[in-house]
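Worked example 3 (structure in, sequence out).
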């Protein structure tokens, strides 16, 4: 199955060629002008990097991507691609003089020399290598241009052989439709600001008009040049105000209240959990502070419910002890990831009981609650009513076999547990029976008009993700129905109404109230945030499965009180982040969890960067170790880190660490204007919560900086005439100030890296994001000693982590073989206990049915051996009850 959508581009060409070469035919490629590439391969693994997708296709066929190949991957991303783009974005159906593109000539000469020396092996007689696939697809638009003919004979010879391979011809035709280089023109035109390239100039040549300079005037307007000059000369640097706790709303200021979905307390969060709520919210809260807004970021652990009771029973402790244990684990994980909560609390507090019961009584007095006798599933073996999420079976609406008792993950519809077909208790796999119990419901149908009116205003907010709107609108389209808010459980907020005091509140009534109670534990003046809709903007961050409870159920309950509660203005939901070829699974040892990441030799900022670059904003994405390595080594190390380090090292080595005096010319102002474009788009995208794609703005600025240094080469100019030395000072000063700007823009994504850059720059931080780049580092400013920001990740290191967190090759948790000596009843008893715990873990984790059955069989065999060893008849199982003898 092949599906190729969007603009033709060399990036699509290389992915398709790799698939043809390796025989991988399940592929979906899509991109739009200005949007990131999206590649889905094989079993729906998604990549946003074409080189990572190429690597994956080759490795799935057993082709080792070695260090030499990775060198070509990185060089293509950081050097070749932009120089090819600089030519193709300007040539537009006319022939340009290739000699006007010295950097492109240098890159092609490097390729030709590498082929001659054997550094790049080009034997196309059998298979096209991964390196050849990446490099030759990138230069393919060039070699359709007559201007290239005769200039690089070795490259031309090998390209002609490459082009005549059947796999390349097929890929070329599929991507370009047989139109040749013209088919790529829309792609290069849409992205031409990324490719701008000018001839190296010195101060004498800068004022001379050249063909290239004239071309660049079509890119940067006169108004942009004037704005850049005005801002640069103003030296207008604004700083943040001191932050004093408790943070409270202020009249006349933009007050932002941020919450991320409360992580459930009974397990360690994995990478998908982290990017889905707390990390995304952290990025936005840090950004808000850089805009000078008054912001409060609240979160905490969700601790009530059946899952906690069950986990406590498994570990032989009380629910409170489970909550204490895992609240600490969550806190430590988020602290390591530099998640900057203003307050991280929990729901098992007196404030939670007080506020939840107060909202309940308001709903009761306003006649928004009704009593209904309901049928519930009861597990005889577990001797309890089953909470919705502890029942699984076949969805009655779409026939999905792994639906939960409250919602089907496939069709997204809410269901009642008793409606499931073939229901099973998630804990013991027995078939539950139906019993009746009287419960309280909030009548959402009566509150629907109020909710619709509220959402009509709320939907105007920029922060609503498409999936959040769609899910909410689907609920409203189908019409709201009464929703049960009580449960027959022990561990939860008690229901205070006579006749229901033996029940607790249902988690999806109770848990969102945790935002209020956690704020109340932070400050006694919590109502200034939560009962102040005219002066507070509320942003919610979560995964898509939590949306209806935050956009429909919780707002309806607040509206039903008739109090002036702050209702959600922006709800941003992610899709799911999966792991490599499958899903995260604690029981099977698959995937990286929060406590794992902290034990690697990879800094938390690198984890943050990669997770945010893979943030599943429009569709599910997959964590990939290969892509992790590539993004670190190419985008961080060779692009961002390389620019900042070489800029500051030159200040240190050539000017004794003192920022020199700049005398800017038109070429410099063009660069500053292009930076201002990226800066403007950075703010626009972040306001709309386009967090993932906005990383491109930062990397584009550092890429412009690298190109600027390479074009001007201040290390050569400083050895020349007085004019050359003056030019070197200007270039050095601008590069250092670009580094200062990048230290601000990178802060929401990589706060420790931001702090490191600012320490090296010897600035105190706390700068607001400027409207346009200005001189943050004045002439004479003394910087500290620079040092590299990032390190290269080695393939051997990544392979080690990949093996460590993949679980068994079949995706199942490794179970040690049981070897017990005859007569060793104590050892066998211990193995029975271990195997029994494993079975419970697998059931709780919703492992595959065959896997559970296999481990249950092992458990029964162990029990049989133990019975025989003790001289007893083996225990028989029948209908979930032990047969007594």
């Amino acid at each position: 199955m092949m599906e190729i959508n969007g603009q033709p581009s060399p990036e699509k060409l290389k992915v398709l060629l790799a698939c043809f070469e390796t025989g991988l035919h399940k592929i979906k490629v899509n991109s739009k002008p200005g949007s990131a590439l999206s590649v889905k391969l094989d079993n729906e693994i998604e990549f946003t990097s074409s080189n990572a997708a190429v690597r994956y296709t080759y490795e799935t066929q057993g082709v080792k991507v070695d260090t030499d190949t990775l060198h070509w991957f990185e060089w293509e991303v950081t050097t070749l691609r932009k120089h090819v783009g600089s030519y193709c974005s300007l040539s537009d159906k006319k022939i340009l003089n290739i000699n006007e593109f010295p950097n492109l000539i240098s890159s092609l000469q490097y390729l030709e020399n590498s082929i001659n020396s054997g550094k790049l092996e080009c034997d196309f007689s059998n298979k096209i290598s991964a390196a050849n696939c990446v490099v030759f697809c990138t230069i393919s638009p060039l070699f359709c241009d007559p201007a290239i003919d005769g200039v690089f004979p070795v490259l031309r010879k090998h390209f002609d052989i490459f082009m005549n391979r059947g796999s390349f011809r097929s890929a070329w035709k599929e991507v370009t439709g047989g139109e040749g280089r013209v088919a790529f023109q829309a792609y290069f035109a849409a992205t031409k600001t990324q490719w701008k390239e000018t001839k190296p100039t010195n101060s004498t040549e800068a004022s001379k008009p050249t063909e290239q300079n004239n071309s660049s005037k079509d890119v940067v307007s006169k108004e942009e040049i004037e704005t850049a000059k005005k801002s640069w000369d103003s030296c207008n640097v604004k700083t943040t105000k001191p932050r004093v706790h408790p943070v409270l709303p202020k009249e006349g200021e933009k007050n932002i209240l941020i919450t991320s979905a409360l992580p459930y307390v009974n397990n360690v969060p994995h990478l998908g959990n982290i990017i889905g709520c707390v990390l995304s919210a952290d990025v936005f809260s840090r950004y808000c502070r850089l805009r000078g807004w008054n912001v409060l970021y609240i979160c905490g652990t969700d601790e009530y419910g059946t899952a906690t009771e069950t986990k406590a029973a498994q570990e032989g402790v009380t629910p409170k002890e489970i909550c204490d244990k895992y609240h600490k684990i969550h806190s430590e994980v988020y602290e390591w990831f530099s998640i900057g909560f203003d307050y991280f609390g929990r729901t098992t507090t007196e404030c939670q009981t007080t506020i939840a019961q107060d909202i309940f009584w308001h709903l009761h007095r306003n006649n928004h609650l009704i009593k209904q006798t309901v049928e519930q599933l009861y597990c005889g073996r577990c001797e309890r009513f089953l909470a919705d999420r502890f029942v699984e079976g076949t969805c009655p609406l779409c026939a999905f076999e792994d639906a939960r008792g409250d919602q089907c993950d496939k069709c997204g519809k809410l269901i009642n547990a008793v409606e499931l077909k073939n229901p099973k208790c998630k804990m013991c796999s027995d078939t539950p029976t139906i019993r009746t119990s009287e419960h309280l419901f909030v009548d959402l149908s009566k509150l629907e008009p109020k909710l619709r009116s509220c959402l009509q205003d709320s939907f105007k907010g920029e922060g609503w993700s498409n999936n959040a709107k769609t899910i909410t609108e689907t609920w409203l389209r189908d019409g709201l129905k009464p929703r049960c808010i009580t449960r027959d459980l022990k561990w939860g907020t008690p229901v205070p109404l006579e006749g229901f005091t033996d029940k607790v509140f249902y988690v999806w009534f109770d848990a969102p109230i945790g935002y209020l109670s956690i704020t109340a534990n932070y400050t006694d003046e919590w109502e200034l945030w939560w009962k102040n809709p005219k002066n507070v903007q509320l942003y919610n961050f979560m995964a898509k499965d939590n949306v209806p409870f935050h956009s429909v159920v919780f707002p309806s309950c607040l509206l039903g009180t008739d109090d002036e509660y702050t209702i959600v203005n922006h709800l941003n939901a992610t899709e799911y982040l999966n792991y490599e070829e499958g899903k995260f699974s604690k029981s099977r040892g698959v995937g990286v969890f929060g406590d794992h990441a902290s034990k690697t030799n990879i800094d938390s900022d690198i984890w943050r960067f990669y997770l945010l670059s893979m943030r599943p904003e429009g569709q599910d994405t997959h964590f990939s170790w290969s892509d992790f390595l590539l993004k670190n080594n190419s985008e961080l190390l060779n692009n961002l880190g390389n620019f900042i380090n070489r800029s500051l090292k030159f200040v240190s080595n050539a000017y004794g660490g003192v920022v020199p005096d700049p005398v800017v010319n038109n070429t410099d102002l063009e660069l500053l204007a292009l930076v201002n474009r990226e800066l403007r788009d950075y703010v626009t995208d972040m306001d709309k919560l386009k967090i993932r794609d906005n990383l491109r703005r930062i990397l584009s600025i550092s890429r412009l900086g690298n190109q600027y240094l390479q074009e001007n080469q201040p290390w050569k100019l400083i050895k020349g005439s007085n004019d050359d030395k003056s030019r070197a000072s200007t270039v050095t000063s601008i590069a250092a100030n670009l580094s200062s700007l990048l230290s601000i823009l990178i802060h929401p994504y990589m706060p420790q890296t931001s702090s490191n850059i600012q320490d090296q720059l010897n600035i105190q931080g706390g700068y607001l994001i400027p409207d346009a780049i200005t001189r943050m580092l004045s002439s004479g400013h003394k910087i500290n000693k620079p040092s590299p920001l990032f390190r290269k990740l080695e393939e051997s290191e990544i392979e080690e982590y990949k093996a460590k967190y993949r679980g068994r090759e079949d995706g199942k948790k490794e179970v040690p073989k049981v070897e017990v000596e005859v007569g060793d009843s104590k050892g066998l008893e211990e193995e029975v206990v271990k195997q029994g715990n494993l079975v419970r873990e697998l059931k709780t984790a919703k492992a595959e049915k065959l896997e559970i059955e296999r481990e249950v069989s092992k458990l029964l065999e162990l029990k049989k051996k133990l019975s025989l060893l003790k001289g007893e008849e083996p225990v028989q199982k029948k209908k979930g009850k032990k047969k007594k003898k």
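Notes: The CA atoms of residues 327 and 495 lie 25 Å apart. The radius of gyration is 31 Å.
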